[in-house]
Design brief:
- By secondary structure, this protein is of the alpha+beta class.
- 43% of the residues lie in helices and 26% in strands.
- The chain has an eight-stranded mixed beta sheet.
Amino acid sequence: MNWKENNIAGCRNIITIMLVLVAIAGQAQIHYRLEGNIGNTEFSGKMMVKDWSSNEILDSINIINGKIEPIEGTIPDCTICILQGGSQPPIYPVFLGGGTTHIENVSIMLGFSPMQSGTPLCDDYAKYQSVVQQAKREMIMRKLSGDKREFNTKLKAETSLQISNMAKDIITRHHSDVLGWYLLFVDAQNYIQPTDWLALAEKMELWLKDKAMYKTYEHQKSIMKAAAQTSVGCKFVDVETEVDGKTFKLSDYVGRGNYVVVDYWGSTCAPCIAEFPDFKQIHQQYASRGLTVLGIPNDKDIKKSRMAIEKYQLPYTQLLNTQDKFAKAYGIASMPLTIIFAPDGTIIARGLNTDELKAKINEIFPDNK
């Protein structure tokens, strides 16, 4: 074999070794261990450990009087899990991988979310949980103590900002792992302003590209873009609909010299229905003073909207048959949603509950008794 053949053979060997190393790296697994308790000493039995995004069963755990018999194994990457089985409500999120995950004190206040520790993801999520839990406790105590509505509204804004700042700090540090994704897309989404959300999501986009969650990212990004363009201080975006052969627009009511309170609702949405008496009261009290209440139902079947309007005797104007046009234009992901427009069509508030709405109307019409 001459020197050229030796060089070629050597190159082939190097390439082969590199390919093997790449393959090994691609199959690299990380260790996990799960221990602790589920906070229910009356429960004994088996629970499945399921991957959050794929619903694939990764493992199973035996529970004896609420205590987890420790398990360990390997997975391709850190993941979010749900513990599910028997009569026990599902426990989530559980961050698995990169060490020992210790869970305890499953909190009903946090939606059956466990306190967890032992890995960087678990420890940072615990910091976030602690802030949320403290904020919720304070809100409950203030409400029970009979504090004034205006004070509670201010407190809610302050605690939301505190939660948002904590979430943004953690997401920035975890922009390429499942903790950052979970906070941005699930747990802290409603606390973060749309413009901040979009900036954080941009940092995460590269990591998300080849993952199953990318479709969720694209969908949520479109919602947040619309929400940013219709946030407080922005001009209204017009929406057009057709009912019984006639065309109706949001601009038929908004930007025409009156304050307009929009109630985005659905005929099968229990929280929406619970707010109807408040909107009826506001309509009765302020219609003659320059405030218009405008309902916008989201039902795809106009008959369902009309039946609900008749059933609940809604006396104020309804913009029917918008389908999903209004939701898309204003970046709405859930109901009910309230938006207040100034007489010139500028958005002055959105996302208020009825107590906050009444407080805001009292600011607009301060002489009302």
